[in-house]
Amino acid sequence: MSQTTLLYIEDLTVDFDGFKAIDKLSLYVDYGELRFLIGPNGAGKTTLLDVICGKIKPESGRVIFRENIDILRKKEHELVLLGIGRKFQTPSVFTELSVFDNMDISLRRKKNVWTTIFSKVDKKEKEKIMNILHFCGLEKKRDLKAAFLSHGEKQLLEIAMILIQEPELILLDEPVAGLTKEERFQMGQLLKNILDTRSCSILIVEHDMNFVRQFAKRITVMHEGKILCEGNIDRVQNDEKVREVYLGRSEG
User: Fold this and answer.
1) Where is the ABC transporter domain (predicted)?
2) Dihedrals φ, ψ of 190, to 5°?
3) Rounded CA gap, 239 and 228, in Å?
4) What residues contact residue 41 under an 8 Å CB cut-off, 6+ apart?
């Protein structure tokens, strides 16, 4: 295993009642990398994220994080503590709480239950929260209930809630779904800024090919639970199998 590899996946298989959602897949993500996962619906992309974050267990294979952490032996909450943050397609924020309180709750997820329930945010924690909100462009929304945020702002808040936990690997499932053109660009710039200023890698499942073309440096194309092609956007777009299987289809 290379010392530059943050996430190491080898011969991974996930079987749902005889259907191989992932079929002997191997994938390697380096430190500081922004990797896009694309492919038609049913290709196994979201299932792969589910395995990495501990939501489901595979039939076989290896998934190693940070050189020596066996993900398959860990529970979901343990992987959060170890530095894996997951954002689902639909924002999962606490809509009746303020933006600041959402951040406070996320910050305390790395602490024990009693600390989460009874402790109050101190000056250092408040400063940390405000720095992340500023980084994500949400500092002016700190006192607003999350219910009143736009869809795009909720997406940004959820990413901010992940960042406050200082992850080493961020998993994003269609982060620009439902966003305007301006919001998509803002999201792309945020992801670039995260990589430029923080020690982490980002693995993204995405269907919006315009967004992929604009921001991707390395792309993994999945089909029927396997990797069809890997490389930069030019290599992927010019690959004959990819054109047949994916790019010629509807992007929805």
Assistant:
1) 7-249
2) -60, -45
3) 9
4) none
Domain count, the chain: 1
Sheet containing 19-30: give its strands across: 19-30, 5-16, 60-65, 69-70
Q: Which two tokens stand for residue 234?
A: 């030019």
Q: Are strands 60-65 and 5-16 parallel, antiparallel or unpaired?
A: antiparallel
Look at residue 233 and tell me if it is in a domain.
Answer: yes
* Residue 252 lies inside a defined structural domain of this protein: no
Mean pLDDT of 16-26: 96
Residue keyed to tokens 């047949």: 244
55 contacts 48 by C-beta, under 8 angstroms: no
Is residue 135 a part of any domain in this protein?
Answer: yes
Range of the domain at 72: 5-247
Residue 242 identity: V
CATH of the domain at 34: 3.40.50.300
- Bridge partner residues of 20 (DSSP): 15
Report the pLDDT value the prediction gives residue 122, as an integer from 0 to 100.
84
Conformational region of residue 139, where left means phi above 0, alpha means psi within -120 to 50, and beta covers everything else: alpha
Band of pLDDT at residue 232, cut at 50, 70 and 90: very high
pLDDT digits (tens, 9 = 90+) for 189-212: 999 999 999 999 999 999 999 999
- Is residue 206 within 8 Å of residue 236, measured between CB atoms? no
**Residue 38 DSSP SS3:** strand
pLDDT tens across 159-179, in order?
Answer: 999 999 999 999 999 999 999
Residue 231 in tokens: 């490389």
